[in-house]
Write a structure and sequence with these properties.
21 strands; alpha/beta; binds adenosine-5'-diphosphate; six-stranded parallel sheet; 2 domains; Rossmann fold; 20% strand
């Protein structure tokens, strides 16, 4: 099949979170299955294009509303020699800045136009290249207008037969804007209705994608169930329930070219589940990097995260003094986000030198070192559509301590003390107490049940999380979507 993947992020160049990893790794896995895959993504500021990128000689036209026509530069490369074609659109008015969604003063004020432009450009790319895909795979609200275009102004054009698969990565961000964006987009006014993309008089791009896509996916089966409830549905649960029979949950895999302790070049020493000696070297390296007491017998607990409400790290911040008083452990935190969390964790590092290490910022190489050098990984998420860090952790023999929500339930097996089964430690309620006692449980296991800890580590490292299986599920979903679209009428 010919698949066009549309995304505002693609790892490693333009990454805010797991979406970037998913788009890159899934596309590569789909090519291995024999599909033809193109990714379209904006070219952001600071993205230096090497000689591997070819510039198309003719400018690409993007057709907006009121007959407005914009010209952009199209670039192409063979993405990491994988066979995936990566097309970048260069349009500096919207994308020359470094930050993808949010600048120093909050969300970019023109995000409505920026991502409408991306959505429209995805379709105009097909016309420009004279390449009609079988499926357009859309990702989150930034691409939500594509299924709306396909069902309206594209309906009787060459792209009208194209199926759309819309993946929900995080329902919390929906792209809600004033109705004037429809004029900018060139979409007909009648789409501003409740059973399309309207929400309280505004345009809700996520809702538009969910209503109009041929098929829907989300990034774990458990999150697919959760978003049909008021607790997790962020107001769109009735819409998702309405489309439930077209929705599948597929867990993300991980890119084992990048996240593999046996080959990872960013860590001090490589290791495998059969020979963990390199992990001890990585732990020492991590303790030194964060100025912690270098001592192999003290468990190190790592965190790598966006510091936002979703991730529940305020729960951890609350209990660090309590933990430091009661438990002999070290904590390492890498993240950036809300200032009360950044300041709070910095304060903890100052209060507990040698025991708490903090790096505020975004640093890929440090993320690898934390995964490799830690004994446990803390993820107290309030909600977690899939989560990638628990998968990386398990690959690196670092046991996750996580809230039982979303994809964390699908990917982590709870430790069963009587059988030494499981791959991590799960807790139910997002409270500081629940997190505290679960960290205590993990800590006691580390100190008092060494053989159980080792067994869990082995189980975790044996957990299969490459993209091969999930890519097959996506492939089946595309076939399902193509078949459904072929039966369209009207
Ligand atoms: P989300 O997409 O909600 O942020 P995921 O767990 O799915 O959460 O993916 C997060 C990805 O971003 C992981 O690859 C993680 O390693 C990376 N990441 C998050 N924060 C940082 C940071 N401060 N430095 C380096 N990598 C980070």
């Amino acid at each position: 099949m010919k698949i066009l993947m549309v995304s505002p992020e693609v790892a490693p160049y333009a990454k805010v979170g797991g979406l970037a990893d998913m788009v890159a790794a899934l596309s590569k896995a789909l090519v291995k299955l024999g599909h033809e895959v193109r990714i379209i993504c904006p070219k952001y500021g600071g993205w230096d294009l090497s000689r591997d990128y070819k510039a198309y000689p003719e400018p690409m036209i993007v057709n907006l509303g009121y007959g407005r026509v914009e010209f952009c530069q199209l670039w192409e490369t063979n993405f990491e020699d994988s066979g995936v074609k990566l097309n970048l659109i260069e349009y500096n008015k919207y994308f020359a800045r470094h930050e993808i969604y949010t600048g120093p003063w909050g969300s970019h004020a023109d995000n409505n136009e920026r991502f409408t432009f991306l959505s429209r450009a995805a379709m105009d790319l097909c016309y420009y290249l004279n390449w009609v895909p079988d499926v357009i795979h859309c990702n989150d609200w930034t691409t939500g207008l594509i299924p709306v275009y396909l069902n309206t102004i594209e309906w009787r054009k060459p792209l009208g037969n194209v199926a759309s698969v819309f993946s929900i990565h995080n329902l919390m961000h929906q792209g809600i804007f004033g109705p004037e964006v429809l004029g900018f987009a060139g979409l007909p006014a009648h789409v501003l209705r409740e059973d399309c993309l309207e929400a309280l008089g505004n345009v809700n791009m996520m809702k538009g994608g969910i209503y109009n896509a041929t098929k829907l996916t989300t990034v774990s089966p458990n999150y697919a169930r959760e978003i049909q409830t008021a607790e997790y549905g962020c107001g769109l649960d009735p819409v998702i329930k309405f489309r439930a029979s077209d929705l599948v949950g597929i867990v993300n895999g991980i890119d084992t070219d990048i996240w593999n302790p046996e080959t990872d070049k960013l860590i001090k020493a490589n290791f495998s589940k059969d020979d963990l000696s390199g992990k001890a070297i990585c732990k020492k390296d991590l303790q030194e990097l964060f100025h912690l007491e270098v001592n192999d017998s003290i468990p190190v607990m790592g965190v790598i995260s966006r510091l936002v409400d979703q991730k529940g790290l305020d729960l951890l911040l609350n209990i660090i003094p309590w933990i430091m008083h009661e438990m002999h452990i070290q904590i390492v935190i890498l993240g950036t986000g809300e200032s009360f969390l950044e300041n709070g964790f910095n304060q903890m590092a100052a209060l507990y030198p040698g025991r708490v290490g903090v790096y505020i910022g975004y640093k890929e190489s440090l993320a690898h070192k934390i995964e490799a050098g830690s004994d446990f990984f803390i993820m107290p998420s309030r909600f977690e559509p899939c989560g990638l860090n628990q998968l990386y952790s398990m690959q690196y023999g670092t046991l996750p301590i996580a809230r039982a929500t979303g994809g964390l339930v699908d990917t982590i097996a709870q430790y069963q003390e009587d059988k030494d089964e499981g791959t991590g430690f799960l807790f139910q309620h997002p409270t500081p107490e629940a997190l505290y006692y679960t960290i205590g449980w993990a800590c006691a296991t580390y100190y008092d049940r060494k053989s159980a800890y080792k067994k869990l580590q082995h189980n975790a490292m044996s957990h299969e999380c490459s993209w091969d299986k999930s890519a097959k599920h996506y492939s089946e979903t595309y076939e399902w979507a193509v078949e459904a679209r072929s039966k369209r009428f009207g």
